[in-house]
Each structure stands twice: as C-alpha cells, then as structure tokens.
Amino acid sequence: MMFMQLPIELLDKIIQHTLPEGFESVALTCKRTYGQCITFIAHHNELRSRFRSFEYYLRPYGLNLTSASDMLLRIAAEPVVARYIRSATFAFDSRFLLRQLPKSVPSIHDGGAIVDLFANSVYLKEADLDWKEYYTTFESDVRERRYSQHGATFLLTLLPNIEKLIIPRYWKPNNATDKLLDAVINKARESTSSLASVTRFEGSISLHRAERFDLRWASPFLALPHVRSFRGPSCLGVEDIPRSLAFRDSHRIAETLQVAHLIFCCIDDVGIADFLRHAPSLKTLRYMHCTKSASPIQDWDICKFVNAVEREAGSHLVQLSVIIRELQGSVVPGKASIRGFQQLQTLEIPLELIMCNIDAATGHTTNPSDPLLDLIPTSVAQLSLISKGTDHHEEALDALFRHFQSDNDSRLSALQEMQISCLVSADDVYKDQCDRVVRGARDKGVVVVVHRFPNEQTFLWDGEP
Predict the structure, then answer these.
(1) Which among 432, 421, 426 is positioned nearest to 457, based on CA atoms?
(2) What is the pTM for the complete model shown?
C-alpha cells in the first residue's frame, strides 16, 4: 500500500512521530504529503521557536517556565517538547520562585503524567534508585518553593537532542543525583540517548570570590561522548580538598574535550594536573586565577601551575592563557618552564611569571641567554603579555626582548602578532620599556596592539561564544 493511501488517522500518527527531527523532510516529500502536514506546521513552528534555544523565563503575561518542575510538567503533558531542545540555559532554575509561586506537582497517590515519567524512568532503574523516594523528595522541594537538585537532574534524562547545556546556578549534587547522572552518562556513551549529542557544557555559578563550583561536579559531563568545549566559572580544584579534584578516583576520561575556559577559578598544580591528565585531546586552555574564600590557598604558585600544564599537555596544546584576575595573597617564588610546549601557537601570560624566573636566576641576572628566561616557545605566533606596569615589570620585558631585533635571534621568529598591557596607571619606566619593545617588534614586521586599560579583549580563543 502506498504511503498516501493509508487512512488519514494513521497518516497523522506517522507524521506526529516525525516531529521534530524528520517533520520538515517528510513535509517536503511531495505536494500531497505537504498538504497532510499543514495542520501540524503552526504547532511545529511554535515549539521550535520556544524550545530550540531554551532558558527559564518569567514574563508579565503568558505561560511562564521558571524551574525544572515547570519544565517537567510541560514535557509530561507533551513529551515531544523535550526533543525540540538543542540549547538549554538552565542557569536561572528557581531564580524567580520568590516572585511567582511554582506550579504544584501531584502526589504519588494522586498520580498523573509527571508521576508516570518518574515511575517509568529507565534511568532511575539503572541507577538502582527507588522512584517513589526520588519523586517524594522532588515533590517536597516544589512544595517548599526551593530549588530541586532532584528535579534538575531528572530533567537531564529527557533531552536526546540537546547540544549545548548550561546547568543551574544552584547545582549541588547529592548521592542520589550523582547515581542518576552516572546512569545518564553511561547510557549516553553507549547509545543515542539523553545528553548523547552534547558538544558544549557550561557551569553557571556566580564569579564572586565567595562562590565555588567543585571541578569534580563537571567531570561526569566532560565524559560525554561528543563534548568538545567546557566553560567552567568559579571552579575549585586543590590538593587540600581532595573531593574538589575533577577526576580523583574516577575511571572517566574526557577523551573528546578540546577546549576548556576556566574563569575566576582557584586551582593549584595538583588540581590542573589531575584535570589535564584526563583530557588527552585538549587544544585550548584558558585559565583565569581568582582567590576563593573557601580555598585553603591564598598565595598561588603560578610556576608549579604552569609546569604542571607543560608536563601534562605540552605535547598537544595549541592555545594557552594563564592570567591572574584577583589574588588575595601573593605569587609564590619559583621557576617556570614553557619551552616544552611543542605545538603552541597562541600564548597569554602575566609578567609575574617572567619575574619569578628573573628572581630565581643566580645573582638575579637578566641575561636573556639564561634558559630560565628563555620562556617563549619558538612556535608561538600570537603573544599576549599582561601587566599592571608596576613591581619592576620593565625588567621582564627587557629580559624577553633585549635581543629581539638581532638578526641572529631566531627564538621568536614565528611571532606575527603581539598584545601588551601598558596601562595609563603604569610606572613611567615601564611605559618607556613598552615603547621600546613596540618599536622593535614593529620593525620586525610584528603586528602590535597596546592595551591601555585592564581586562581588554585579546585574541580570538577557540570555544568562545
């Protein structure tokens, strides 16, 4: 029997099953098929507009979705909604609860579509969790008008087509949700199930120094089979808090991860080594250090940090940025090595790193032939140097570029573009040294951009939105 000769009711059922992935292709098959699809087009367009790039919202009119419970009720009422979601910003889950009462969810006794979602969940079974106990906790959270980790995690079991995921700002895993998330990740690695299509994962916690996101909480998502990019704000990963380490005691590997942006984070050499050891394909690492109130370390050993990066990822990193955004203590003296990076093309570092090597050199020499100062890999084409222009940072510039104009100096022969901080508030002696470096670089054909204000945008980094 030909497709269009099927009964209308059966045709409608078949067309409904193509939503959303195959609907447009089916509609364009032929004129008669398109005619049969017309009744579904308006609703298809509405769902695609509302849910393809989704975030929680509160509006003065219309349907509001402000929490995981609202979203679960919506999916329970119309399961196809979950398949429309390609990008989900769940950051503001429950943020609006003080302004609007959450929609109530039924008790297990009362039943309903959302109760059936939990009762029939293969993920709760895989995790060996009692669905009634899990649902009761979720229901209690909703009734008490609070963020529900149980609800936020369960929602992640229902998203087969999502490609970009930003988890809630209030994300705080517990034993039950850890087990459920493990089941989701394990299934995603084996089949085309929920979260299996995720390529970009982001945390969403505040950048305030009092906030922290244990790097360990990100590791399950980084083990998804197609994750390529990770943005982690306010991450903590230090030796003195073992449970904060990303992959400690874990068998997981972030084997497809290529880009990591760790901003306003507090991670020591042990924490970054643990992270990088489990990310063998990483090409871009951007790290912005910020002292966290909950961290046992106030001083930062940037040399050990950079040396750990070189040791664990020196063979494959292409872009590297390590900068200091907010340091409550001081930089720990030491010696740094960057020359071991074999493929590095873009490098951004603070001049504090160079000063460490100057101070560590015997007799405080600034001899540029000293291997401790010969820091920049020969492969680097883009170089950014960050400084406030104080604390004798002109010595760092002199050590790096004193012989740059020499025809015999091939150490920076690949350099094409340089960005350098020369703030309005910098010391005059530093400004003078900047001017000399800029003239020398331009004479060698290097494009130079001078930043007069802090925190200006530098190069284009892979994985930036």
Answers:
(1) 421
(2) 0.88
